[in-house]
């Protein structure tokens, strides 16, 4: 785009991003393979309805949430508003898919007469979903809705980043709890005998941990943060001066 300075991309960043995508796509594919090979596949109106839950959570709360967090590292030269919209839409997609997974498991339990919300996995899962929903609502109100002031956005930005990373870590941990719970329910004592399903699921768990670790590594590298474009800094200064009547300090 004419008049827009191009920000150089750190040499190693594309490789780490590509590696994260390889891990993420592999864990989604392996989740589908695990459910297909050892759990009978997925279907809504049958005993296979429960299997919708782990697949939706792997896609939504793990893969798409991780990709949403990486948007500001990957799209370094695009307009800030475009990047914000993409970041928000990926989170909406993740929330929607996760909601389908929640409905699936609660509906399955209702049909079977099983108890709800008694395990640590279920408690953590509800906590993660509620925090994720609240995080999206607050983030939309501060960064996409035009009513928030510049100073308010600046003060909240660090908290938004912290809670985003924390919720992602909780999502990965909750997924690992759910995976272990599913294995123990079905395999029981056979789990210690290196059953093929147990080995496959253990590899899936390692992929979950590795994907989470790579995403967090990319996020926490200070030199990989998206630098402010010159026009963004100018607009921020003008906006703060007009709305608050003072000269903005450095961000």
UniProtKB/TrEMBL annotation:
It is found in: Cytoplasmic vesicle, Secretory vesicle, Chromaffin granule membrane. The chain crosses the membrane at residues 12-37, 57-75, 87-106, 126-148, 160-179, 199-219. It is a multi-pass membrane protein. Pfam families: Cytochrom_B561. Keywords: Cytoplasmic vesicle, Electron transport, Heme, Iron, Membrane, Metal-binding, Translocase, Transmembrane, Transmembrane helix, Transport. Residues 19-220 form the Cytochrome b561 domain. This is Transmembrane ascorbate-dependent reductase CYB561. It comes from Callithrix jacchus. The gene is CYB561.
